[in-house]
Structures are given as structure tokens and as C-alpha cells.
Amino acid sequence: MRYFPRFVFLVAVLGGLVWWSPWQGPLEAMRVADGFRLYRADDYRLAYPENWQTRTGTNQEGHGYVEFNGPATPEGAYSGQVRVVRQDGWNHRLQDKLTQFQTAAAVEHYEIVRSLPVTVEGAAEAHRFEVVRKIKALSGAPLSLRGSETFAVSDDGMLLTITAEAPERDRTQAQLPRVLDTVEISGRNWFAKQDWFPPNWFEFP
To answer: Of 16, 52, 163, whose CA–CA distance to 101 is shortest?
Structure first.
């Protein structure tokens, strides 16, 4: 019986090594689907096609964003794009944001083709609009983009606005839902503060 405390201690140490953050990067990378790369922010993460480029910035409202941009098309547009805007301190109803978007969509000539609640891992509530919009590419050619606007709010008041779009007839359309399916929100919980995460964040079929 005197060896039992030592055994418990050894199990605890080994368990700590498995959960220890330096191990998590390689473990997470192994779970990302072939052809995709993991992007990990403080409070959320997603996987995106490995041949896409990332760009960060701040929008007109002062909120930080990350863009994931596919290779350019012959017309001079992105073959696909996912843009994530992060906003802290959201203390309103999610419905307020949805109403705001619907009003702006009418002004900016977005066609909303579908509206539905969705599940985003770690979010308290989420909603998605499937949309179509017309733009002019750099070449001046008219282009129809099809995609979605997803709004997800966490329990601690972080709002993510996720824009995903690609040329309507481009094969990249098939990649957009694969990116959206990987979005996970961690929130400012104890694990996020310690940079420790449970081991099953990304398990692709």
C-alpha cells in the first residue's frame, strides 16, 4: 500500500504532461484535416486551407480581424475568403446584431437566401445568413459571390462575425463549409488563461 501514493503522483505527472501546452500544438496539428492549417487566437480557433494567406487588421469600428484569403482568380478576386471579426464586451442580444445586419444588407445589396440558427462549438448562441452579392473584380469584370455571415456570441460576451465567401461557380465553394465547421470558441475560461486546452479540439472524420 505504501507504493499507492507514489503511483497516484506518477499518474498525475504523466497526465499533466499530456495536457501541458507545449505538447498541444503538435497534437492539434495532427488532428487537422489534410490540406488544412490550424489558426489559433486567444479565444477561438479554426482550420483553413494551407494555400490560403492570412492578413490581420482593424475595421472601421476599431475591432480586430483576421482574413484568410485564397489565391487570386483570373478576374483579380480572391478564389475564397474567410474573415473573422472579434468584438469584446457584447452585452446585447444576438438578435440586435442580426437585425443590424439585415438592415445593412438591404442597403449594400446583399441578397439573403437563407437565415437559420447554427451551432458553433463553445458559443452560447449563433446564427447564420446565407447570402449572395455582386461585385466588380480588379479587372472590372462583374462577379457573383456566394457565402455566409455567421454571428456567434460566447457566454463571456465575445462576439465573432465570420464572413465566408467565394465566386459562385468556383470549386472553392466546397471549402467554405469545411472551414466554418472547424470554428471553436474557448472564451476566457481557466484553460484559456493558462493556455491549456482539452485534447479533443479538432477531430476531423
So the answer is: 163
Is the distance from CB of 65 to CB of 86 less than 8 angstroms? yes
Q: DSSP strand E in the chain: where?
A: 36-40, 44-49, 53-58, 64-69, 81-87, 111-117, 125-136, 142-153, 159-167, 184-185
Contact 166, 80 (CB under 8 A): yes
Query: H-helix or E-strand containing 96?
Result: helix 94-107
pLDDT tens for 95-150 read 999 999 999 998 888 899 999 999 999 999 999 999 999 888 777 788 889 999 99
Check: pTM over 0.90? Answer yes or no: no
Residue that has been written with the C-alpha cell 481557466 in this structure: 190
Residues 6+ apart with CB under 8 A from 197: 21, 24, 28, 186, 191
Q: What's the residue count for the chain?
A: 205
Could you tell me which of 114, 128, 111 has the C-alpha nearest to residue 163? 128
Q: In one letter, which amino acid is 53?
A: Q
